[in-house]
């Protein structure tokens, strides 16, 4: 999956550090991230040295233009907190963050997706949600602190269930309604306040396709920074033999049962959804 790095590790512990010219810069404009492609089509981020030349003079969110994000595979990544403008180097261009799904550039995509998650948290917490005063970054940990009321704001991670509904040799696949993403997937939804993950699975299945399920079992989780999620994968079985689907057309454009050898999906090695579908195709899903 996306977070399965080809080598090295991700060290996401916050440390107050100043960047060097050869460190990696994540420059964001709206919903886009600045990247270049090499001769093999692989994605790369600019260095701090490059970004400092292109983006100098822009109004900053913080006292310093770059904020340490994490270390991945022995490279330090820094977020740029100015109003990112057009890049002077024509090798680089802004691409939508939502398109970071390229298997060949898995490591770079995971870095950008994680940086995007942190960036959005910083962007959304420049002011205290309790009293409205400006917040300041803590020196020792990744936290925004309000000097006026003492409110401490930590990064938010939203749990979302990815749901493989099975019935014997069949798997339920669906497509979203009114979204640009048109590939097949599985049912999914956020776990809500006051319910367990398993209760959220049963509720989402009932809401989206009108089916009751049983034998809800955990498979695996995946960080999904573009949406600020922790995706939590579950398989479950249809409760009974009635496969009749009552579709929530506000959420889904279609939902249909597919046998193992008829599933119209090829796992690209990026998402938890893809891996779970592949596991079912191969008969390796937890029982």
Describe this structure in words.
The chain has 287 residues and is of the alpha+beta class. It has two domains: 10-124, Nucleoside Triphosphate Pyrophosphohydrolase (Alpha-Beta Complex), CATH 3.90.79; 158-281, Nucleoside Triphosphate Pyrophosphohydrolase. Helix content is 17%, strand content 32%. It has helices at residues 48-55, 106-124, 197-209, 272-281, and strands at 10-11, 24-26, 28-29, 32-37, 43-44, 66-72, 75-80, 92-96, 135-137, 144-146, 152-153, 158-167, 170-176, 187-190, 213-224, 229-238, 252-259. Strands 12, 13, 14, 15, 16 and 17 form a six-stranded mixed beta sheet that branches. Strands 1-6-7-2 form a four-stranded mixed beta sheet. The two termini are 22 Å apart.
Task: Summarize the helices and strands and which ones pair or pack.
Elements: E1 10-11, E2 24-26, E3 28-29, E4 32-37, E5 43-44, H1 48-55, E6 66-72, E7 75-80, E8 92-96, H2 106-124, E9 135-137, E10 144-146, E11 152-153, E12 158-167, E13 170-176, E14 187-190, H3 197-209, E15 213-224, E16 229-238, E17 252-259, H4 272-281
Parallel strand pairs: 2-7, 12-16
Antiparallel strand pairs: 1-6, 3-4, 4-5, 4-8, 6-7, 9-10, 10-11, 12-13, 12-14, 13-17, 15-16
């Amino acid at each position: 999956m996306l977070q399965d790095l080809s080598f090295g590790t991700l060290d996401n512990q916050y440390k107050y550090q100043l960047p060097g010219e050869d460190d990696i810069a994540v420059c964001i404009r709206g919903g886009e991230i600045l990247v270049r492609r090499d001769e093999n089509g692989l994605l790369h981020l600019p260095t701090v040295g490059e970004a400092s030349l292109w983006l100098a003079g822009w109004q900053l969110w913080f006292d310093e233009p770059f904020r340490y994000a994490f270390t991945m595979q022995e490279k330090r990544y820094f977020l740029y907190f100015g109003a990112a403008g057009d890049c002077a180097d024509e090798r680089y261009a802004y691409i939508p963050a939502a398109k970071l799904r390229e298997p060949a550039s898995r490591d770079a995509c995971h870095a950008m997706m994680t940086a995007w998650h942190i960036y959005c948290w910083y962007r959304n917490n420049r002011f205290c949600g309790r009293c409205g005063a400006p917040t300041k970054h803590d020196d020792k940990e990744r936290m925004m602190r309000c000097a006026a009321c003492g409110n401490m704001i930590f990064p938010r991670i939203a749990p979302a269930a990815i749901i493989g509904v099975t019935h014997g040799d069949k798997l339920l696949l669906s497509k979203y309604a009114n979204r640009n993403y048109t590939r097949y997937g599985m049912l999914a939804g956020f776990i809500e306040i006051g319910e367990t993950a398993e209760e959220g699975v049963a509720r989402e299945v009932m809401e989206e396709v009108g089916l009751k399920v049983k034998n809800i079992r955990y498979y695996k989780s995946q960080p999904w920074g573009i949406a600020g999620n922790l995706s939590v994968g579950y398989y479950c079985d249809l409760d009974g033999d009635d496969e009749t689907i009552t579709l929530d057309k506000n959420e889904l454009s279609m939902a249909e049962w597919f046998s193992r050898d008829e599933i119209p999906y090829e796992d690209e090695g990026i998402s938890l959804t893809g891996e779970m579908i592949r596991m079912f195709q191969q008969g390796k899903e937890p029982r």
